[in-house]
Write a structure and sequence with these properties.
The protein has 286 residues and is of the alpha/beta class. Helices cover 38% and strands 16% of the residues. The chain has one domain: Rossmann fold (3-Layer(aba) Sandwich), CATH 3.40.50.1820. Keywords: Hydrolase.
């Protein structure tokens, strides 16, 4: 399953081979890079995303010092099975995957839907997680999370009409700075040219949106249960998961740190990757 210690350490996400692991009745597709040993950092991906949606400018700096693992959720990309219709069930899948790899302690780097899954996982299995990075995300029952589907479909339509990637609308402000950052981000995602992942299916995507809506309408979780060191980050103008929810998480998770990037949206950490990657790497190294 894992590479032997004689293999050269891969620190470029564009070159990380795709592997598979069967756990809990699912064959999960995943990639790993960075030096083995120590606590691994498992990346929890966003709505509609596959292995190919991680920004290499975020992954690579963290993989310089840490064993990094990215994976496809059940029913997404190259992972088998059907997408669950609840965030909690997605967290159960993540738990099965992580335990299947043999890890007892991990750090989590999560973005958007991934951050919701991470919260559900930590509340259920607090012993598994040492540190938590929550970006562009919000808590269960968070204000307007149930409106994500409407915003998403609207932006997909706008993107279709202009022949652009929907993420340019969903993740970035539509001003000069935002448009520039959006194009640069989409270009970075194309740096991997071999062994690319299958895009999410329309059915799987709709099921994920349903799960997010359910999360937004569910009762607020007791986030005082999260005692792990937590870093929270977002842009100041997140249209998908409102920026105020990052502040809400910060208030409710004791001792958490909050970073808000000005003049940026849902993808603020990607727009400001040069500033954010060292902050995240430093937080995980402490």
């Amino acid at each position: 399953m894992s590479t032997t210690s004689n293999d050269p350490v891969i620190t470029s996400y564009a070159q990380a081979p795709t592997r598979t692991l069967s756990a809990g009745g699912v064959t999960f597709a995943y990639r790993e890079l960075g030096p083995k040993g120590g606590v691994p950092v498992v990346f929890f991906v966003h709505l509609a995303a596959t292995l190919d949606n991680w920004d290499p400018r975020i992954v690579d700096p963290i993989a310089k010092e840490h064993h990094v693992i990215t994976f496809d959720n059940r029913g997404v990309g190259a992972s088998t099975g059907e997408v669950p219709d609840s965030v909690e069930a997605m967290a159960d899948d993540a738990y099965a995957f992580i335990r299947g790899l043999g890890f007892e302690t991990i750090d989590i780097f999560a973005f958007s839907l991934g951050g919701m899954i991470a919260q559900a996982l930590v509340v259920e299995h607090p012993e598994l997680v040492r540190k938590l990075v929550l970006t562009g995300t919000g808590p269960a029952g968070g204000k307007d999370i149930d409106k994500v589907a409407g915003t998403t479909y609207y932006d997909i339509l706008r993107a279709t009409l202009t022949r652009s990637d929907p993420k340019e609308f969903l993740f970035f402000n539509r001003n000069a700075t935002g448009k520039l950052a959006a194009r640069a981000f989409v270009k970075r995602l194309q740096e991997r040219t071999v062994d690319c992942d299958a895009p999410i299916t329309a059915k799987a995507f709709r099921t994920q949106l349903k799960a997010i809506k359910k999360w937004g309408r569910s009762a607020p979780a007791d986030l005082s249960k999260i005692t792990q060191p937590t870093l929270i980050a977002n842009g100041d103008n997140d249209r998908m998961v409102p920026s105020v929810l990052s502040e809400d998480l910060h208030r409710r998770i004791q001792g958490s740190e909050l970073v808000i990037y000005r003049d940026s949206g849902h993808g603020g950490i990607f727009q400001f990757h040069q500033q954010f990657a060292p902050v995240a790497a430093g937080f995980l190294a402490r």
